[in-house]
Amino acid sequence: MADTEYLCAETETVKTVLDKMPPDEMLYDLAELFKVFGDSTRIKILYALFESELCVNDIATLLGITQTAASHQLRVLKTNKLVKARKNGKMIFYSLSDDHVYKIISQGMEHIEE
Amino acid sequence: MADTEYLCAETETVKTVLDKMPPDEMLYDLAELFKVFGDSTRIKILYALFESELCVNDIATLLGITQTAASHQLRVLKTNKLVKARKNGKMIFYSLSDDHVYKIISQGMEHIEE
DNA sequence: ATAACATATGAACAGATAAACATATATACA
DNA sequence: TGTATATATGTTTATCTGTTCATATGTTAT
Asked: How many domains does chain B have?
């Protein structure tokens, strides 16, 4: 037997909230996306790429991290379609995949700066 | 003696990248902010609050989580200024603190839906 | 083919974190 | 005052995550 749940909010309100809530899978994906932005190393990489495409070693050197760490994080960014890769000889140049990245980070910055 | 670092990118480019990079502390704060969005329980809470202010117990019931879990997550959201609280008797109503929350989540959704 | 370089991968470890459980605080009402 | 209700807090635990180290893959040049 389930508990008798009761609510403070109006029944109508509760109904609206539940109606407008996107499906769980979508909310899960959204959280996953933000999780990618939730690491300072990855944020730094994205910021660096605002200016120019860069190869892995340059990114590592610029940010003062190891090549391995850069590579691992670039993989996360690529998997989540935040950056794309272009191969040129032995080097691989990474760049932002679209301007959502810029917009999302900008909104975040606005929130912080107030 | 430091390694002799060399870069693939132009010296000028590297300089610009470093110049435009915000201070580390700011980048760290930004990552912290996105970390808050990077959890599906918190995303669900924020989505619920898009419609209406809600008390803790309602949020817990609506999302199918325990009161304790809701309270813990609301604290995280409040600490990061994403929600604000209004006390009314024994109940505490939570609501979104500003529209950055909405904008950030919207941008994220756009990225996912493409 | 071999050497040097650029990047990626796999495994292990340390630190972070969300949830659960028990309990504390605070308010309302009898 | 005592009791029920609403929310918050502290602690533990299981899981996740970022980094490091070692190694592998792939590319270029000699």
From this structure: 1
